[in-house]
Amino acid sequence: MDTKIRIENVDYYLRDANLNATPVSDCGIYPKELNGYTEYLEHSIRKLPLCKLNIKLPILKSKELKMESLIDYINQNGWVGGVVPDFVTTKDLLKSVASLETHLIHVCRVGGVFFVLKVDKEDPVKANHNVIFNHFMTKKSGNDVVLNDGSAYKGVFKATILNGEKKMFNILYSGEVDAVKRTPNGNLRHYELDVTYGGPENDFFWIENSCRLFWKSFFGGSPTLIIGSRTGETAYKKSRFLTYPKHSVYEIKQIIRDEMPSEVTYPDRRPLWTVSDGKKNLQNFLQSVKTNVKRSEMETKIKVETVGYYHQKADMTANVGLTPKKLNNNRQYFENPSLKFPYLNLNVEVKDPGIGDVKLESLLDFIRLKGWPNSVKPDIVTSKSTLVSVAHKRPDIRMQAKRLFGVNYLLKYHEGPYNFPMSDRNGNFGLIFRHFFTRNDDEELLEVDETSTKAVFRATVPYLNGSWNILYSGEVPAVDDQNHHYDFRVASRGTANPYFWKNNSCRCYWKSVFGKARYIILGARTHNVQNDPKTRSPHRIPEKSVYKVSLIK
Q1: What is the pTM (predicted TM-score) of this model?
Q2: Could you list the residue ranges forming a coiled coil in this record (predicted)?
């Protein structure tokens, strides 16, 4: 049976309760192995130990809804083999499409890659049954309890869909690996585990479940399925002396995946499903996505151009023409990730630079000196900080607007004095990190004052049948030799921390868009000794230190 779909298992990772991924290559753990209960596959007359399915499981604190762990894996390891896929998705989604299940699906195109996921939630009762049965078949002792803490063992797979001998689509996806078994040559053989009412002896299994389970095991790289037959609302009397209570597994059966299509093929009527139909379903779906989802989420349709630079002096006036600092040779650490980053101490006292020109003083002085760029009067004059706050829907922002000679001046509104301390803004970490990449030599000290180098930008934002013309200024931390802008950010654990993606990534994105920054340099830092295991054995990284840098496009 040749499906013309080539599946390759490229890695494994452990998804923890916080949806982080720990790959096998980074001290991760392989999926759980089947236990001795597989002996009941050969000895069906023996009584299977009781597996009750109606036990109450702890409520999950976090559920994976947006491929968080796979995205984290990609952030850590990059694209598998350096090859950018056409699609990134999940085993569950591929199974659903191939078997023509009905689901609400979300598609997002980023950087030319289509990210596809299911939006609707699975049946919680069915999900709990599978969690319990998987634990039953892999637990190491009878005293092991079902944790259901959100952790899961996942495989990373590549699927290549062929049309003849030509590659049509390249898909990267992840999926839970229920159980494995070591082969004599040391390889891992995957097993798909599932629980169904009545099991394979019931016609309902083949009519309603067989297609779904075939594709689930296919995309999971599992040549074998182990099906738990369960009771329903009443007990099941298997024999005169053997009765199983309601909501319990009474039998396990092994099914060879590649034999399943023949079980639903009949000589006198159309088969229930065929492998070729499943492949066609998947091909049509992927082609439809590629044809109809044209605009990338990265294409904001907001056009930003740099129209000038100036140095903001301490008195908030503008010294026109001075350019931002250039990146130094330390850029090698984000250009070559294989280089070990020297620990950068962030626990340094930094002078508070002050609040800056909250009333657009330096930009207004630039306009006074240079006039409107290209003699074009804008619709709005504001700051990069204000645009970023609006774009990422900062909830506590208050705005102040003033219209003068047909131009709207827009700024963030502050109550009271503008003298909140640097520690409240946590800005000193970013200043120290940025200085590391822009200092002239290793001996140059970080000097902080109210001055900064800014760029003047013009943004064109589409609106109904026209567009807004916005003139604004914002600090440019550094540029390279081609004058490309770079932004800097420090975050606890960097890209490996879901908190960054959930709470800070949106702001970082819009900050780079409105700052016309091609790249964001993100430093992963430690916390204090009490709260960060990386500061203790075996890592022993100093507290409040950057230990890794990532380049985010």
Answers
A1: 0.61
A2: none
Q: φ and ψ at 360, to 5 degrees?
A: 65, 25
541, amino acid identity: I
Asked whether 456 and 366 are in contact (CB, 8 A), the reply is: yes
pLDDT at 58 over 90: no
Q: What is the mean pLDDT of residues 46-67?
A: 85
CA angle 65, 69, 75 (to 5 degrees): 130
* Cα–Cα dist 250/544, whole Å: 55
Asked if 460 and 303 count as a contact pair (C-beta separation under 8 A), the reply is yes
Residues 6+ apart with CB under 8 A from 469: 376, 378, 379, 380, 458, 459, 460
Whether 485 and 476 have beta carbons less than 8 Å apart is answered as: yes
Predicted local confidence at residue 423, as pLDDT: 42
Contacts of residue 169, Cβ cutoff 8 Å, sequence gap at least 6: 86, 87, 159, 160, 161, 283, 286
Cα 124 to Cα 129: distance, rounded to the nearest angstrom: 9
User: Longest Cα pair distance anywhere in the chain, in angstroms?
Assistant: 99
pLDDT grade for 355, boundaries at 50, 70 and 90: low
Please report, for residues 280, 367, 453, the alpha-carbon distance to residue 339 in angstroms, rounded to integers and kept in the order given.
46, 44, 30
Residue 33's CB is within 10 A of a number of other CB atoms, namely 15
**Under 8 Å between Cβ of 356 and 450:** yes
- Taking CA atoms, 338 is separated from 333, 335, 443, 520, 524, in Å, by 8, 9, 26, 18, 15
Residue with tokens 């040779």: 329
Q: Tell me if residue 257 falls in helix, strand or coil.
A: helix
One-letter amino acid identity for 171?
I
Cα angle: 228, vertex 121, 193; to 5 degrees: 20
| In the predicted structure, residue 542 carries a pLDDT above the cut 70 | yes
Share of the chain above pLDDT 90, in %: 50
| pLDDT grade for 396, boundaries at 50, 70 and 90 | low
CA angle 165, 167, 173 (to 5 degrees): 135
d(CA 118, CA 65): 8
Residues whose CB falls within 8 Å of the CB of residue 365, separated by 6 or more in sequence, listed in order: 316, 317, 318
Q: How far apart are CA 486 and CA 539, in angstroms?
A: 30
| Residues 218, 221, 222: CA angle, nearest 5 degrees | 80
Q: Look at residue 320 and give its three-state secondary structure.
A: strand
Mean pLDDT of 142-170: 88
Backbone angles phi, psi at 111, to 5 degrees: 60, 30
Tell me the average pLDDT across 257-274. Answer: 92
Average the pLDDT over 368-380 and give the result.
93
Nearest residue to 523 (alpha-carbon basis) of 551, 502, 483, 553:
551
Residue for token digits 């040559």? Answer: 185
User: And the tokens for 25?
Assistant: 């290559």
548: left (phi over 0), alpha (psi -120 to 50) or beta: beta
